[in-house]
Each structure stands twice: as C-alpha cells, then as structure tokens.
Amino acid sequence: MDRSLILAWILVLSTATVLTCCQGYYSVCLTYVPVPERVTYLHFFLHDTLSGKNPSAVIVARPNITIAPNGALAPFGSVLATNDPLTVGPDLTSEVVGNAQGLVVSTGQDVLSLILYLDFGFTQGEFNGSSFSVFSRNPITQTERVLAVVGGTGFAQLKTYFVNITSGDAIVEYNVTVIHH
C-alpha cells in the first residue's frame, strides 16, 4: 500500500512539474495576412558571342559521337558556359546593366534546341543587385518563344533580334515578367 501511495505522489508531482515547464510552449494564433504580390517588367538585350577573341560563350564539353546537323556549332550533347552581357539596347555599345551567367546544353538531335540554366544578374540601374534565374527549353529556331523563370515566379518572352548562323553570334531581346513579394 505504501508503494502505491508513493508511486501516486511521484506521478502527481511529475505531472505538475511538466505542466509548469511547458507554460510557453503554445503561442497565440494570429491570422495569416499574405504579403501582396508585386509584378516587375524587365526589358533588355542579351548578347551571345561565340566568335572573336573575347567570346561570351564557349563550348566546355562536346561529345565525340554526334554529328552536327546542318553544320551547327554546338551539336547534340554540347555544353556551353556563358557570361553574356545584358544591355539596354540592341547595340553592344549601349549601357550594360548586367550579365547572364550559366550553362547552355544543346539538346536537339534533329532541330536545334537548347536547355538554358542561366542566372540574370543586374549590376547597374534600378535593379542593381537583383537577379532571377531561367531554367527552360529554348527552341532557338523559333523567332519568338517563352521561357520559364524559376527562383521566383514569372516568364520571359524572347525574340531573336539578330543571329549570325555561321559564327553563332546572336542578340536576343528579353521581355521578362517577374512576380515577387
């Protein structure tokens, strides 16, 4: 009987101790108020240069088992590293506002198509210090196309402004919509 009484007191005291230790465990519930979404529109030109003494994109890997369709510079399976300047206008001498760095993979076996893994970083102007990323399929044979913005929400509408088929150099106009908080 004494053992049962001692055990009962131990249970009562341990329960009381647990309750006093856990007074601040639960917080007051607050109603969730979502942060309003903001939409930012960006317009710039990307200069992708594979030719010359100072290219902005270079092939870092090329398989030795594929043949380039139609004499393409980057046949299926090629990987390019890029550091392309972003400018306000289509001319390379216009104001540089940032650069696009990343990888481009040639993924089209029959038709030229790329997968882009690019980070667009801004170093000048209103969006200095900001960036967004694109990870998307880029069917470059189409003059106009839409890519997905990741690392955020949005999309990029691309329009080929200029392309030199022999050298691979291109100027691409970007109209980007970024949705953020």
How would you describe the overall organization of this protein?
The chain is mainly beta. The chain is 11% helix and 45% strand. The chain has one helix and nine strands, in the order αβββββββββ. The chain has one helix at 2-21; strands spanning 38-48, 57-61, 79-87, 96-106, 114-122, 131-138, 144-150, 153-163, 170-180. It has an eight-stranded antiparallel β-barrel. The termini are far apart. The mean pLDDT is 86.
Q: Tally of extended strands?
A: 9
SSE run: HEEEEEEEEE
Which class do the helix and strand fractions yield?
A: mainly beta
Q: Averaged pLDDT, please?
A: 86
Helical proportion, percent range? 10-25%
Number of helices: 1
Span of the ends, CA to CA: 66 Å
Radius of gyration in whole Å, from Cα? 28 Å
Residue fraction in strands: over 45%
Low-confidence stretches: none
**How are the strands ordered across the major sheet?**
1-3-4-5-6-7-8-9
Main β-sheet, in a few words?
8 strands, antiparallel, barrel
What general outline do the C-alpha atoms trace?
elongated
Keywords:
181 residues, mainly beta, eight-stranded antiparallel barrel, 1 helix, 9 strands, 45% strand, elongated
Topology:
Layout: H1 2-21, E1 38-48, E2 57-61, E3 79-87, E4 96-106, E5 114-122, E6 131-138, E7 144-150, E8 153-163, E9 170-180
Antiparallel strand pairs: 1-3, 1-9, 2-3, 3-4, 4-5, 5-6, 6-7, 7-8, 8-9
Summed up, what is this model?
With 181 residues, this protein is mostly beta strands.
